[in-house]
Design brief:
Blueprint: H1 6-9, H2 24-34, E1 38-42, E2 48-53, H3 54-64, H4 73-76, E3 77-78, E4 82-84, H5 89-99, E5 101-105, E6 111-116, H6 117-152, E7 164-165, H7 174-184, H8 195-205, E8 213-214, H9 220-227, H10 230-236, H11 244-262, H12 269-283, E9 295-297, H13 336-343, E10 351-355, H14 356-363, H15 369-373, H16 386-393, E11 396-402, E12 407-412, H17 414-434, E13 448-456, E14 459-468, E15 473-480, H18 485-510, E16 515-517, E17 525-532, H19 539-560, H20 563-572, H21 577-583
Parallel strand pairs: 4-5, 9-10
Antiparallel strand pairs: 1-2, 2-3, 5-6, 7-8, 10-12, 11-12, 13-14, 14-15, 15-17, 16-17
């Protein structure tokens, strides 16, 4: 679709210009009055002949050491770039970026406007904002539709799969069908038929339903149709004071506006005003709330102190999943702090409510302005949004949002929990079929599990864990954590000396070298080995991951099972006095 240069000039006043006969004072005064950095110079017919830049005036004054009032327009005028108003806008972008501005003329060569880099940026910013308004409307309507689906099918809450819906076809045409039939029966000789009978004919012969469709793949027209359908409206219609037929009128304007934007057509100020009104109007109406007693409301969130905002939240607990201790990746999202916080919550909590201010405390930086103005910012989008990718990877999703009160509710994705339970149940069973020393652990739906503990002097010094990481790996690890950072470091260094000669043999058996990780600035340390894989993989892929995990964990356990005894021998012989002191 074409974007002409003229589209940038719509609704603009005539350009402010000067002529060669004007004084420099006049040019400077006009720049100050209109806050311009440049002015076109035109001849007596209104055709452009040059441009006066504020920078050009400064340069001439500097080089000649004269007062600006002594200069003429011709002293500072530069040759302009000129183009027709019917030229393609995209063909002009490179020129505007390189030159800063271009003068626009009509087919007679008369000046009609000036386009600057600010104008092009603002134009496309406005296009993007219009699309964001449409998205806000779509997501708000989906919120209402989803509220109906949840009350009729509560087990959908916490599911990772997108709910599907059936679209009733032809509802919008019912009234038109009745009018058409009545028009045919306008003849006084025709029999009288009630509207109910006509509607029955319509529903029997015309109205059809669609195949089940994911709610997040519906078109705006389908969303509107579903939102205003009878069964759905009966559930949340009391929230609104406007009748469905009146709402449908403005929604039709929104739908046409959305199509114009999708086809890169310029929309009118009337359409843009309706977009903003509809977005704000919907934001003032909340879907009916289901039972909120299960939603954990957090009264206070302590600010998290960190020197690097990309650092993950560190929960200081022996039971802390080892993933919380991961160092940040080079491309880590700063929103990972929220993901870590959510994942650290008690797994018995299915929903949790936070205010925007509390989320900012967790993140240790302010939310962007769009988070407070656009419902679409909070969409559970795994493709384009770093913030939603973070909380989805932590097995939480946004379940409801109140933009007016600045509160958001997150729900755990329970089907992901069930997948973890299924995987680790078989994983532990297969490990114990190999060696009864593995712990008979019962998976609780988290992404990790402890399968063995290493002790020294009847004290737990390390655990053997298995975990699906947020970065797409299945990781096995010896996780060293006694609760004392100095002791953890001493154990790690002692094990490094004791086991280094054995690493080559293990590497040859499992096909990859274990990674010794001191985890700087963390309390714990670890030795890990990883295999690519995610809990969302196919059954066949998960079976292969589990087989690798069992075989490797058995070898890992065989290697480190005597770690406690070796450590005791190591420090009791005087080889590690600092370790002996810490144990004492």
């Amino acid at each position: 679709m074409r974007f002409s240069v003229q589209q940038l000039l719509n609704d603009r006043p005539p350009p402010v210009t000067v002529s060669l006969a004007d004084t420099m004072d006049t040019a400077i005064d006009l720049m100050r009055e209109y806050d311009y950095s440049q002015l076109p110079v035109v001849d007596a017919q209104g055709k452009p002949i040059g441009l006066v830049f504020s920078d050009g005036i400064v340069q001439v004054v500097h080089h000649f050491q004269v007062k600006p009032q002594t200069l003429r327009i011709s002293d500072v005028m530069q040759k302009p770039m000129i183009t027709r108003d019917d030229q393609e806008l995209f063909d002009l972008l490179d020129t505007v970026q390189a030159k800063g501005s271009v003068l626009i003329v009509d087919n007679q060569g008369l000046l009609t406007g000036i386009v600057t880099s600010y104008d092009t940026t603002e134009y496309f910013r406005r296009q993007t904002q219009d699309l964001m308004y449409v998205q806000d409307i779509e997501f708000r309507l989906r919120d209402f539709i989803l509220s109906f689906l949840l009350q009729s099918n509560p087990e959908l809450e916490g599911g990772s799969d997108t709910p599907t819906v059936v679209i009733p076809r032809g509802q919008a045409q019912r009234a038109d069908f009745i009018k058409a039939v009545k028009a045919l029966m306008a003849d006084s000789q025709a029999p009288t038929i009630s509207d109910r009978r006509i509607l029955n004919v319509f529903e029997t012969h015309f109205e059809q339903t669609s195949d089940p469709q994911p709610i997040d793949q519906l078109t705006l027209a389908e969303i509107i149709q579903l939102f205003l359908s009878r069964d759905y409206w009966r559930y949340y219609g009391h929230v609104f004071s406007v009748k469905p037929e009146d709402i449908r009128t403005i929604f039709e304007i929104i739908r046409k506006t959305r199509n114009d934007l999708a086809h890169l057509r310029e929309i009118t100020n009337y359409q843009r005003e309706r977009l903003r009104f509809c977005k704000d109007w919907l934001a003032r109406h909340q879907p009916p709330q289901l039972d909120t007693s299960a939603i954990a409301v957090i009264d206070d969130v302590a600010p998290i102190q960190a020197t690097d905002t990309t650092e993950p939240v560190i929960i200081e607990s022996v039971q802390t999943p080892s993933e919380f201790e991961d160092p940040p990746l080079p491309n880590a999202s700063r929103y990972d702090r929220l993901a870590h916080w959510l994942r650290s919550q008690n797994r018995t909590i299915s929903q949790i409510q936070l205010s925007f201010a509390q989320i900012e405390d967790i993140l240790a930086f302010p939310l962007p302005p769009s988070a407070r103005t656009h419902r679409a910012w909070w969409a559970n989008d795994t493709y384009g949004h770093a913030h939603s990718k973070s909380w989805l990877a932590a097995d939480w999703k946004v379940s409801s949002i109140n933009m007016d009160q600045e509160k958001v509710s997150f729900s755990q994705i329970h089907e992901r929990q069930q997948a973890y339970i299924d995987f680790f149940s078989r994983f532990v069973a297969e490990l114990r079929s190999r060696d009864k020393r593995f712990l008979p652990m019962s998976p609780d739906g988290t992404s990790w599990i402890t399968v063995a503990r290493i002790k020294a002097q009847q004290r737990s010094i390390a655990a053997l864990n298995a975990q699906f990481t947020r970065t797409g790996f299945f990781r096995l690890e010896l996780y060293i954590d006694t609760g004392n950072e100095a002791l953890n470091t001493a154990i790690y260094e002692a094990l490094w000396q004791l086991y280094l000669p054995k690493m080559a043999k293990l590497t040859s058996r499992i096909g990859t070298a274990p990674e010794w990780d001191t985890m700087p600035r963390r309390r714990a340390s670890r030795v890990t080995v990883s295999h690519q894989g995610a809990i969302t993989a196919s059954k066949e892929e998960l079976a292969a991951i589990r087989q690798w995990g069992v075989e490797t964990m058995v070898m890992f356990h065989q290697l480190f099972a005597d770690a406690g005894q070796l450590l005791e021998q190591h420090y009791t012989t005087g080889a590690a006095p600092e370790l002996a002191a810490l144990f004492a």
